[in-house]
Amino acid sequence: MKVPIEWLRDVVALPGDLSTEAIADRLTAFDLKLEEIISSGITGPLTVGRVLSVEPEEQKNGKTINWCSVDVGEQEPRGIVCGAHNFGVGDLVVVSLPGTVLPALAQYIPGGVIAARKTYGHVSDGMICSEAELGMSGEQDGIIVLAPDAASPGDSAITVLGLDGDVIDLEVNPDRAYALSLRGVGRDTALAFGVPFVDPADVPVSVDGTSYPVIVEDADACPVFTAREVTGFDPSRPTPAWMARRIEQAGMRSISLAVDVSNYVMLELGQPNHAYDKSKLRGAICVRRAKAGETITTLDDVERTLDTDDVLICDDRGPIGIGGVMGGAEVEIDGSTTDIVIECAYFDPPVIARSARRHKLPSEASKRFERGVDPLLAARASQRVADLLVEFGGGTVSTGLTVAGGAPERAAVTMPLDLPARVTGVDIDADAVVEALIANGINLSRADDHVVATPPSWRFDLSDRYDVVEEVLRVVGYDKVPSVLPAAPAGRGLTKGQRLRRRAGFVLAGEGLVEVKTFPFAGPVDFDRLGFDADDVRRRQVLLENPLSAEEPGMTTTLLVGLLKAAALNLGRGHSDVALVETARVFLLGPDALKAPIYGVETRPGEAELAALDAALPAQPWHIGFVLAGHRDAAGWQGPARPVSWADAVDIVRAVAESFHVEVEVRSADVRPWHPGRTAAIVVSGEVMGHAGELHPRVAREWGLPERSVAAEFDLDALIAAAPELGPRPDFSSFPVAKEDLAFVVDETTTAESLRTAIAGASDLIETVRLFDVYTGDQVGQGHRSLAFALRLRAPDRTLTEDDIRAAREAAIDAAAALGATLRG
Known about the structure:
- It contains 21 helices and 41 strands.
- By secondary structure, the protein is α+β, with helices and mostly antiparallel strands.
- It has six domains: 2-39 and 166-193, Phenylalanyl-tRNA Synthetase, Chain B, domain 1 (2-Layer Sandwich), CATH 3.30.56; 46-160, CATH 2.40.50.140; 214-405, Phenylalanyl-tRNA Synthetase, Chain B, domain 3 (3-Layer(bba) Sandwich), CATH 3.50.40; 413-477, 2-Layer Sandwich (Phenylalanyl-tRNA Synthetase, Chain B, domain 1), CATH 3.30.56.10; 496-722, BirA Bifunctional Protein, domain 2 (2-Layer Sandwich); 738-823, Alpha-Beta Plaits (2-Layer Sandwich).
């Protein structure tokens, strides 16, 4: 909600020396958070000028410019070149003289500073300004032409246009719908600063009989509907400059007097209203639900098919508006409208919210109706609209007012007087509680130890005692709540899990991966793109009651969804090589998942209730996932670029495991979204804890990644659980290492990892075993391959003898033979 400070001061008696920043800070502390302070930033001699002469001059490029003489209140007029043609001699215009700073032009002129310059054969001593050049709405074509009596030459245009006033843009939470109006913000501002408030809705309401006939068939959807008439209105009258300025500062544009008055009252009071051309209405106004197949052409000239849940405004011909959302084109006011019927109503918020979303028609009116409008405001708002129309457009207000229905009653809330102190930890006595509630407009009935509070008509969020407590604290001050640090847990420093998660982060960064944080949401479409089977357990999700996106309705079961989206985004923005990693929780539903019970907020849950909540929680293990695409090693003096391969993914997982002192086994696997022939299962103590390898080509295409991209995901919690508690640093052998290379011919179904593991365990003297060559061809025969390993041999307490080396070598050969491998000559 954008609130001009000058308008706010009209209804709140704020001290004259109170800065905009101080107002914004206090409102933020009062639960109306500041988004930004908007100011024009214009400085220098921006002035009003009167055009004395206009000489059109055609240029060689075919463009016609105007050489103008403009009176700016000085002894001599200024000569100014202007390319616009929507003004003439005698018009009042806005002139930026040399030295004026226009921030909106900073991208075209250094610093946005206007200077005298030679152009089109003349020295232009200033600039005649348009709305866009002043950073205004820019809706008006050409330069600004002021009303003849708006000012005199030489007057400050900054003041005339209201560009010297700040606007505060407030973030209004859905539960504070009343703050979508000057009235609501003003009421809270007065309460925050303890100063008087002038209610703009406090107008005398004329109710002498009825006005235009109204029939409400669905009182649940529309509890209150009012109609009032204005006759003899002059549609040619202009909108007052101050009103147009306030409307534009509030984020809307000035259109015509009748429309501007309607929008002004909505911004001022928070009550949307609608004006009908009485001559276009056919019979009584009827409020009802839509019938199947009905259509309406709305004010945006779009024909819309209606739903039976939509609430409609109709006359004898059929629908003339979607209630609370948008009016129909058939009865809109135009340049010939002289008799107006003003509608002010209260609609059921859920009905309006559903209609606005169904028709994709978010409007200023629906934004207010779906959050809740004061149901007692309709009659006063219609009177305010009528009074302003007559004041500035002439005509007569009808003395009658048609009122159909009545405002729903608010339920009272009983609250112990000591509850605010108990809940907040602030020493708030009973008198302070009562004073705060009365200041918020709450009607009270007080007993010895409690109050019965009836919320005001504009506060839809006050439904239980804890809502009332919040209102007390808002007045007392959130800053009064004491800060209490939680007790430190027993023990020293970080836990084992915290230490190892940090260690994993260092290792992954050392491997060249960049950490990202993605949204933990996914949906069936994502799982389809990953190639998951219909019965894959990873499709079982914790579903959200109100997801951010209908395509991502639940918590993710795999980090690859977010990582692949992030990788595709980075590749799409020109990054040819991507290496992304994420450490986060996933949410896994077990086969016997329970539904979480929902308890009230009246009392604290007991042990049994907390246990029931814990039992319904899904498993939430920490996972590490990463994606590599493009090149692993860049081209340079050391050689050509090397593309990523499935082995890189496996090596990175090994690096993390080795930093934990955990031995992992690598087995071939076939699981989506990986390539069936280039996928490794990561096994610890016989249990599969993750997978690494090349993405399936179809998956890579689905996500917009290059072929041969690789990925991995593994259970970090399982790896941490397998990590030993590390004691003192072990001694390292200082004796020389011996090296042996062995090549074995094996059946092509025998994995290199199984052979490497067998060789490594053949002797205590074998320190490491590394695969360095794979060969297939005629020399080893069809269905076989050669695997060559480099062995490092070392003893902890002596230099190895030839007999030691020979024994270790023979042990390795025997271990390989047990797997059917033969030593290659």
